[in-house]
Amino acid sequence: MSKPLMRIPYTGPLPPPLVIPATANTLTGAAKALVEFLTHQRTLNDGNGNNKTVLLTGAGISVASGLADYRGPNGTYTRNKTYRPIYFHEFVSSHEARKRYWARSFLGWTSLHKSHPNPAHYAVRDLNKHALFSSVITQNVDSFHNRAHPNLPVIELHGFLRSLVCLSCRRLMPRDEFQRWLAKLNPAWDNFLKELLETGALDTEDPEERRKKGYRTNPDGDADVPGAPYHTFRYPACPACLHRPPIMKDGSKGRVEVDSDGAWSEKSDSGVLKPNVIMFGESIPTEVKSQAEAALDAAGGLMVVGSSLATYSAWRLVKKAFDQKMPIAILNMGGVRKEAEFFPNYESIVDGKNAFRASLAAEEVLPEVVRILGAGNAHR
Ligand SMILES: [Zn+2]
Fold first, then answer.
1. What is the pairing mode between strands 328-331 and 133-138?
2. Is 166 annotated among the ligand-binding residues?
3. Which positions fall inside the Deacetylase sirtuin-type domain (predicted)?
4. Residues noted as catalytic
């Protein structure tokens, strides 16, 4: 039995990026080599008809949509130094941790909500018109792939923020609806959010800019809302579990209690809603893991875009592709975890047919690949 895949942040140093072939050091050179890589797979036939490329994407592909990358081009953390992601066990076991998480999430949701897929996502859509991709596996939880190319299957390795999942009954609930509910339960925060939206304080990631525009934070990096510290933040219980208590593992009935406004009460032992994403310290569901592996097995090549493969789940997929002798392409700004392992003898590689590596922006390179291939050659 294989051990469960746990999502853990990797904080070690990353190697300097390789350039394969040597001509992939410019936008045009990289785009031409990628055209070779993608079209060459199509000419091959492994006997099973697996001649398309599976795409694996990470945070780097969404940077141009205005979302912060987990790591910057130099492999260092670019976010607020006080920022620490919440771990699954904290979220599940601590009411206080959930209040803090939801307070932050309440303020952050509008920024995510108004951001959109960028030219890199649309280039994937356009490349798929040439029948080059079999599917997309993404580590991103922003749903941009689904929005940009609804006809190309997407496996969301780390879940998705557009929904919540109840930890007791596993029902999903739309995040938009939940946001309106949070606003009603937390009027002081709702007013504060409206002010921030008016001043534009949430349009910038720069802490100093934000402070000037009225986004005050306390020493822990939490929003300082006048008269409403984050521990006063309230969140709703799962409506289904509130209506009909869930059955617990031991067969007993769960207890879901709410205050007079409908906010989850500490007297409850179930009915907790969680964002439907795989948090750090949480295992990827076996079903999702199997889907990702099946997608890899059904492809002739693997292309990674915007991931330093810092999470083991992603690195492991590329390692599997390498062990299966699949051609590998990596387009990522900055180094990639143990990347030299995937390109032995890379110095002797002269074209992009079976291997590709460039450290350039996806939203520039991918549209250029589309341009070179031309819309006229589209298969459909
Ligand atoms: Zn429920």
1. unpaired
2. yes
3. 28-376
4. 158
Of 246, 277, 308, the one marking the end of a domain is: 277
For residues 254 and 152, the answer to whether their CB atoms sit within 8 Å is no
Residue 184, number of CB atoms within 10 A of its CB: 13
CA 241 to ligand 1 centroid distance, Å: 4
Q: How far apart are CA 133 and CA 60, in angstroms?
A: 19
Is 146 labelled as part of a ligand binding site?
A: no
Q: Are residues 126 and 264 in the same domain?
A: no
Residues 287 and 164 in one domain: no
Is residue 190 domain-shared with residue 213, that is, in the same domain? yes
Q: From the CA of 242, how far away is ligand 1's center (Å)?
A: 7
- Structural domain count, the chain: 2
User: pTM of the predicted model, to two decimals?
Assistant: 0.89
How many A from CA of 292 to the centre of ligand 1? Answer: 27
Tell me, yes or no, whether 22 and 146 share the same domain. Answer: yes
What's the domain range around 341?
Answer: 5-66+117-158+283-373
Over residues 78-134, the pLDDT tens digits come to 444 555 678 999 999 999 999 999 998 898 888 777 789 999 999 999 999 999 999
125 in a labelled binding site: no
Residue 328 maps to which CATH number? 3.40.50.1220
Q: Alpha-carbon distance 144 to 61, whole Å?
A: 10
**269 CA → ligand 1 middle, Å:** 12
3-state helix, strand, coil in the chain (%, to 5): 40, 15, 45
Mean per-residue pLDDT pooled into runs of 10, the chain (380 residues)? 61 88 97 96 68 94 74 45 77 95 88 87 96 95 95 96 96 96 95 88 76 75 76 95 93 94 95 95 94 95 95 93 96 95 90 95 97 66
